[in-house]
Design brief:
Length: 52
């Protein structure tokens, strides 16, 4: 089951392997169990969305 239009914050646990895109537009491949990282551009907290 794929979740769409769901946002995740920096520090939350990744629940599903996949490609995610930050508010700054940078994509990152994240794996289940990792934490969503800070923004790859600013280094601040950000929101990530599923890009798959």
């Amino acid at each position: 089951m794929s979740s769409t239009n769901t946002s995740y914050r920096t520090g939350e646990i990744v629940k599903h392997d996949g490609n995610y895109i930050s508010e700054s537009g940078k994509k990152d491949k994240l794996q289940k169990g990792e934490k969503f990282p800070a923004c790859p551009v600013s280094g601040n907290e950000t929101t990530w969305n599923n890009a798959d």
